[in-house]
C-alpha cells in the first residue's frame, strides 16, 4: 500500500520520468509514455524490502522500469538486476551518494548536505571496483549511529543501541531504524516527528557523517561510468531561484548531467521550476518516489 501511494503521488505530478538519460536506457523504445521510478531503496541501505523483491512489486503496479539507488552502497544491485530480468522489468543500477556543498547564499564551505543519484547503464565488475570508495561513507555511518543514540540518551530518552538493532531486524542500520525505535517507545507519534524533533539534519541528536565533497561525489560517479543527477533539489532550501540556478550551473560544470524534478514533496510549481532550470542548462530530467518501504 505504501508503494502504491508513492507511485500515485508521482503520477499526480505528471511524468515523463526519464527523457534523455542515456541512449542505452532509451534504445529501441516506442515513443509512448512509460511509467518508471528512478529512486528506490532496499534493505541494503535503509529500506524495508529486499532488492530482489522490488521488481515484482513494480511490475504489479504497472511500472516498466525501476532504478535501485541505495544510500552509499551497490550491494543489492546483482540481486535486483537478476530479479528484474526474470519478471521482464527494465532495471537500472544506481546509487545515492551524500555530499557536502558550499551554500552560495552564505559563502560557507561544506555547510550543507546534498544527495547525488548515480545511474550506471553498463553495470559490470569494473563499476563495482570503481565505487569502492563508498566504503568510507558506510564506515562513517556505522560509527555515527551509536553516537546518535548517545545524544538521545543525553536528551533524557531511554533508548539503547540494542533497541535500535532489534528494530533493524538484521538490516543495515540507519536513522530510519532509530526513528522507528523512538516511535515504538512512544517518544513520537510518527516517523516524521522523530526526524523533526530528534534525528533530522537540524535536530538536536543529529550527528553528521563523513561524506564526499560535491565535486568528489560527481567525479566518483563519472569515473565508474555513471550519470550524476541532483536528487530532490528542494531539500537544498535556497531562498532565491537565481541562487539555485547558479549553484546547479556550478554542478553542471563539475559534471552533473541531470535533475530529479519529479519527487513526492515537489509541488507542481517546484517541478516546473526544476524542468525549466534543466532545459536552460541542457540537463535531463528524472523522477522517483524515494521509496523506502515502511520506513518512508
Characteristic key phrases:
296 residues; alpha/beta; disordered N terminus; 8 strands; 8-stranded mixed sheet
Low-pLDDT windows of residues: 1-29
Number of strands: 8
Briefly note the structural class of the backbone. Answer: alpha/beta
How is the biggest beta sheet arranged?
Answer: 8 strands, mixed
Oligomer: single chain
The span between the termini is 12 Å
Portion in beta strands:
15-25%
Radius of gyration based on Cα positions = 19 Å
Principal-axis shape equals globular
What percent of the residues sit in helical stretches (DSSP H or I)? 40-55%
Mean pLDDT across the residues is 86
Count the helices. How many? 12
Reading the helices and strands in chain order gives HHEHEHEEHHHHHEHEHEHE
Report on this model:
This protein is α/β, with parallel strands linked by helices. 42% of the residues lie in helices and 17% in strands. It has 12 helices and 8 strands. It has helices spanning 2-12, 23-26, 54-60, 77-87, 125-130, 134-154, 161-168, 175-184, 191-199, 214-223, 241-253, 268-280, and strands spanning 36-40, 65-68, 90-103, 108-120, 212-213, 227-230, 258-262, 284-287. Strands 1, 2, 3, 4, 5, 6, 7 and 8 form an 8-stranded mixed sheet that branches. A hairpin with a 4-residue loop joins β3 and β4 (108-120). α3 (54-60) runs parallel beside α4 (77-87), α7 (161-168) crosses α8 and α8 packs across α9 (191-199). The longest helix is centred in the middle third of the chain and has 21 residues, at 134-154. The termini are close together. The model is unreliable at 1-29 (pLDDT under 50).
Amino acid at each position: 500500500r505504501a508503494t502504491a501511494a508513492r507511485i500515485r503521488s508521482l503520477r499526480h505530478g505528471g511524468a515523463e520520468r526519464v527523457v534523455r538519460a542515456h541512449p542505452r536506457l532509451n534504445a529501441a523504445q516506442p515513443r509512448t509514455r512509460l511509467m518508471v521510478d528512478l529512486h528506490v531503496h532496499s534493505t541494503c541501505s535503509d529500506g524495508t524490502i529486499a532488492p530482489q523483491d522490488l521488481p515484482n512489486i513494480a511490475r504489479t503496479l504497472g511500472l516498466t522500469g525501476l532504478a535501485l539507488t541505495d544510500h552509499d552502497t551497490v550491494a543489492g544491485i546483482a540481486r535486483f538486476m537478476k530479479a528484474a530480468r526474470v519478471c521482464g522489468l527494465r532495471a537500472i543500477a544506481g546509487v545515492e551518494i551524500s555530499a557536502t556543498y558550499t551554500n552560495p547564499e552564505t559563502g560557507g564551505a561544506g555547510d550543507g548536505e546534498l544527495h547525488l543519484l548515480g545511474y550506471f547503464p553498463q553495470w559490470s565488475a569494473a563499476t563495482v571496483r570503481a565505487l569502492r570508495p563508498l566504503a568510507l561513507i558506510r564506515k562513517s555511518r556505522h560509527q555515527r549511529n551509536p553516537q546518535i543514540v548517545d545524544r538521545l540518551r543525553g536528551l533524557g530518552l531511554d533508548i539503547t543501541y540494542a533497541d535500535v538493532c532489534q528494530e533493524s531486524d538484521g538490516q543495515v542500520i540507519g536513522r530510519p531504524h532509530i526513528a522507528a525505535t523512538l516511535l515504538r517507545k512512544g517518544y513520537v507519534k510518527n516517523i516524521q516527528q522523530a526526524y523533526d524533533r530528534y534525528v533530522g539534519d537540524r535536530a538536536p541528536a543529529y550527528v553528521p557523517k563523513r561524506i564526499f565533497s560535491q565535486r568528489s561525489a560527481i567525479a566518483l560517479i563519472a569515473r565508474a561510468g555513471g550519470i550524476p543527477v541532483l536528487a530532490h533539489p528542494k531539500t537544498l532550501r535556497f531562498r532565491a531561484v537565481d541562487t539555485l540556478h547558479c549553484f546547479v550551473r556550478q554542478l553542471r560544470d563539475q559534471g552533473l548531467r541531470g535533475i530529479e524534478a519529479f519527487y513526492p514533496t515537489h509541488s507542481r510549481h517546484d517541478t516546473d521550476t526544476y524542468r525549466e532550470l534543466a532545459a536552460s542548462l541542457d540537463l535531463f530530467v528524472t523522477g522517483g518516489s524515494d521509496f523506502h518501504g515502511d520506513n518512508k
